[in-house]
Amino acid sequence: MFEKGQICTVEIMDMSDQGQGIGRADGMAVFVPDTVVGDLARVQLTKVKKSYAFAKLLEIEEPSPHRMEPLCEGGFQKGCGGCALARLDYPGQLALKEKQVRDKLCRLGDLAAPIVNQILGMDDPFHYRNKAQFPVSTGGVITRKGGIVEAAGDPAVGFFRAKSHEVVDCERCMLQSPAAMAAAEALRQFMKEDHITAWDERWERGLMRHLIVKTAFGTGEVMVVLVINGKGIPNAAKLIEMLDSAIYEAGFSLESVVLNIHKKKTPEILGETCVPIAGKQTITEVIGGLSFEISAMSFFQVNPAQTEKLYAKVREYAALTGEENVLDLYCGIGTIGLSCAAKARQVVGIESVRQAVLDANRNAVINGIVNARYVCGKAEEELPRLLASTDPEDDIARIVRSADVVLLDPPRAGCRPELLEAVGEVAPERIVYVSCDPATLARDVRLLGDLGYTFMEATPVDMFPWTGAVEVVSLLSRIKTSDKVEVKMDIEDGEVTP
Ligand SMILES: C[S@@+](CC[C@H](N)C(=O)[O-])C[C@H]1O[C@@H](n2cnc3c(N)ncnc32)[C@H](O)[C@@H]1O
């Protein structure tokens, strides 16, 4: 039995998404900050629960061969919570992520020996992010009425400290695009020169809440979204000029500046209303030879180089011949479905964000794609509605009912069970599931197993180097009723192989 204060040696076998090493002491999981997988560490327990404990690192007895000094010259030492794997070298990160996908599919997906292919990593895992989200603070105290007190510190444009809403100012970041860092510096200078307040959630006052910078690496276009608690920014023309020249000097072109009005006291980053104040309403990115227009509110994969690999793997798993109807659920601005459209009979996408659906329709048009249609709404509501439609004129419902391949790409929370049941009712030959959380993927793979789908294989794709997150593409295939009977008989005979 372990007690708080006890000292022990643990071998770090795994890491949490937040970058804590996880070791085992007599079967109990021990979470140790500042350690990496492969370290042998002497630790002191700081909190002991029934089946796990937290500990502080006393000494690395034997360092992991993959341990390294963090390369970050920006916020890491100041407590920025962005790069959870900053102490693990890149080969170590890839091995860890591949293992985590396999472990979760076994443990939570009830799979004995899932095929997990080698993770697809990056050749140059730096400055890959096309979207930066910087919280802003004045670094000092603002008064209840929103004015800056005289001794307020300089504006900070950076990232939240781990597990807090304190903003760590960050002038350099090894993940963000040069355009994003240039825009952050321009905003910092502007706020300082023009005494612009930043949102302070303690008093719920202050103007500037977040700076969002979207960079299209393929075209060099940049969009800046200024999230504010107010109707506008005083002297906004000066800010736009400063952003424009900073982004130009970084080698990119500012094409769109949008105000996002967020007066609510909620922690969501974006408010509901967007007002373009300079340039276009969208920027254009090129992925796999197709052009995609991206607006302020729409989702776009954050790592374009890896997105090409991700979508190529989706196409491989979808194995389209030109005859299939394809359902693209959680389609965002249509990227995955449109990249499959050339080899599909028809594509129907379902997406809950209205602006993204508008973008998807426009993206089909600008790429000359005529076999893709979109439905706006929650997939778990729209799919059952379309399946129940008895309207003979409802073309979309007809395509949906006869879908041969379903593409799933939900947010981290995974799919709702009612959505998976509706997919089971559609009964496609193949399901290609793209996930950014292997735990919810594994849960959904288990549910899809109950609906008659066999997990075939998965390929992890490293979309987020230096962070604890990993993307996975999985292929599931429908077990024909006759196959199911055979499997069952074989198991009864004591042989598991179908
Ligand atoms: C991980 S993104 C994938 C987007 C797209 N497939 C891509 O590759 O860019 C998930 C998308 O699901 C959308 N979404 C979230 N909940 C949804 C729901 N219940 N029904 C439909 N779409 C949803 C989000 O707006 C977002 O665009």
Jot down its keywords.
498 residues, alpha/beta, OB fold (Dihydrolipoamide Acetyltransferase, E2P), Rossmann fold, 7-stranded mixed sheet, globular, disordered C terminus, binds S-adenosylmethionine
Instruction: State the helical fraction.
Output: 25-40%
CATH topology of the largest domain: Rossmann fold
CATH architecture of the largest domain: 3-Layer(aba) Sandwich
Q: How many β-strand runs?
A: 21
Description:
With 498 residues, the protein is of the alpha/beta class. The protein folds into 3 domains: 7-67, Beta Barrel (OB fold (Dihydrolipoamide Acetyltransferase, E2P)), CATH 2.40.50; 131-287, OB fold (Dihydrolipoamide Acetyltransferase, E2P) (Beta Barrel); 301-486, 3-Layer(aba) Sandwich (Rossmann fold). The protein is 27% helix and 28% strand. The chain is built from 11 helices and 21 strands. It has helices at residues 90-107, 178-194, 236-249, 304-318, 335-341, 354-366, 379-388, 395-401, 417-426, 438-450, 481-492; strands spanning 7-15, 21-25, 28-32, 40-48, 52-62, 131-137, 156-160, 167-169, 208-215, 221-228, 253-261, 273-279, 282-287, 290-295, 325-329, 346-351, 372-376, 405-408, 430-435, 453-461, 471-478. The strands form 4 sheets. Strands 8-7-6-9-10-11-12 form a 7-stranded mixed sheet. A 7-stranded mixed sheet has the order 17-16-15-18-19-21-20, sandwiched between helices. A 5-stranded mixed barrel has the order 1-2-3-5-4. A hairpin with a 6-residue loop joins strand 7 and strand 8. The longest helix has 18 residues, at 90-107. The radius of gyration is 25 Å and the shape is globular. It starts with 6 loop residues before the first strand and ends in a 6-residue tail after the last helix. Mean pLDDT is 91; it is low at 484-498. The structure holds S-adenosylmethionine (SAM). S-adenosylmethionine is lined by residues 299-301, 330-332, 335-336, 350-353, 356, 378-380, 409-411. One of its GO terms (molecular function) is rRNA (uridine-C5-)-methyltransferase activity. One of its GO terms (biological process) is rRNA base methylation.
